[in-house]
Amino acid sequence: MAFDALEFHREAVQSPSHEDVTAMREYLVETLEAAGQEPTVDEAGNVLATRGDEDAEDPESSHLVLNTHIDTVPPHVPYERDGSIVSGRGACDAKGPLAALLDAFLTTDVDDGDGTLTLAITPNEETTQAGAAFLKDRLEADAIIVGEPTDLDVCIAARGQFEGQVTVTGSAAHAAKPEKGANAIRAAAPILAAMDTFDEAAGTPSHELLGDPTLTATMIEGGEAHNQVPAECRITFDRRSVPPEESEDVPPALEAHLRNALPEGFGIAVSLLPRETPLLEAFATDTDEAVVQALVDASGGEARPFGAATEASFFAEVAPTVVFGPGVLADEDGAVAHSEREYVDVEEIEAAAKAVRETIETLL
User: Fold this and answer.
1) Which residue in 34, 110, 272, 311 has the most C-beta neighbors within 10 A?
2) 76 near 329, Cβ under 8 Å?
3) Which band of pLDDT confidence, cut at 50, 70 and 90, is reported for residue 349?
């Protein structure tokens, strides 16, 4: 069949997938089957399809993976089209990239002996990333292209993103006799100030592409009763890391730094918030990698960092990984992806498909 990327995109954006991806996944599977492919859905809900030498043992044979996701953030925003501009939930994040990658997957000539081309579409990038975590340990590849809105630039790096908690402990007392206790909420004030100086004091290195990491206090809670001196206060923080820092490095280093600001008579502990799946670590792909060079040449885009955390973090542990696709995270008027005004220019979808198609031809 002749694949129509823009018709697929229209149907995809019209299909809500912010609460349940079942209908969207079925549409993707039906589209692949209608094109003569034999897609599978694994136990984590990923849709997989492969072309070329799936079982090739030739060490010179290359394996390229195309990945993006079918879920979206809430709420659903209806599909609208005005000229070449399509708006609606998922228009650019990430059903525009999905349409482009699917177009390239189905329409590029891939013959026996050319290598292996895999389409791997995940179901929960916006929430748990469980699909990508499942794939990470089972996927073998020489290069991976992750579809996200990059304005057709080739994004080769991204900050890591994870959350942790600082717990300050004191001792409870009646509020009428505050001097008999150790008020954990009051002790949090110097701790918050010390968090702002952590990276400078620790000498955390800046990254040439991603700049400095950030540490941001995002929530604070403490106390159990309005007439009791609180014995515990918890500060939740967001960490945006840069290579070579890994998530496990942060709690001991931060705790050691904060102890210097802790008033006498209080305790402190720093831990990462638990997750069912691995944390999103920072990554950077060398500009000399073949997938970077091929996609930059094909798209005419700039090699630069990506502005948000993605499942590319997982896949970068498997093979050289880039993030690429039509649409933007934000424009001069504000947020685009995840906003009520989410949109994409369909000409960018076609341009992205062409660039990925040429990249496949170069690499395989």
Assistant:
1) 311
2) no
3) very high
Rounded to whole angstroms, how far apart are CA atoms 135 and 128? 13
Distance, in Å, from the CA atom of 348 to the CA atom of 355, rounded to the nearest integer, reads 10
Model confidence pLDDT, tens digit, residues 123-150:
999 999 999 999 999 999 999 999 999 9
CA distances from 108 to 10, 87, 102 (A): 22, 28, 10
Q: What is the mean pLDDT of residues 320-342?
A: 97
Collapsing DSSP to helix, strand or coil, 273 comes out as coil
Q: Count how many residues are written for the chain.
A: 364
Q: CA 182, 188, 191: angle at the middle one, nearest 5?
A: 125
Closest CA to 166 of 275, 239, 228: 239
- Phi, psi angles (nearest 5°) of residue 167: -110, 120
Confidence of residue 341 (pLDDT cuts 50, 70, 90): very high
Joined tokens for residue 319:
């093979």
Q: Which pair of structure tokens corresponds to residue 313?
A: 């973090």
Contact 15, 98 (CB under 8 A): no
For the cut 90, the answer to whether the pLDDT of residue 243 exceeds it is yes
CA distance 217 to 82: 41
3-class DSSP state for residue 74?
A: coil
Coil, strand, or helix at residue 222?
strand
CA atoms of 57 and 73, how far apart (whole Å): 40
Residue closest to 85 by CA, chosen among 341, 298, 319: 341
CA dihedral of residues 159, 161, 165, 166 (deg, nearest 10): 10
Query: If you ran DSSP here, which 8-state letter would residue 79 be given?
Result: -
Confidence of residue 55 (pLDDT cuts 50, 70, 90): low
pLDDT(241) > 80: yes
Q: What percent of the chain is predicted at pLDDT more than 90?
A: 93
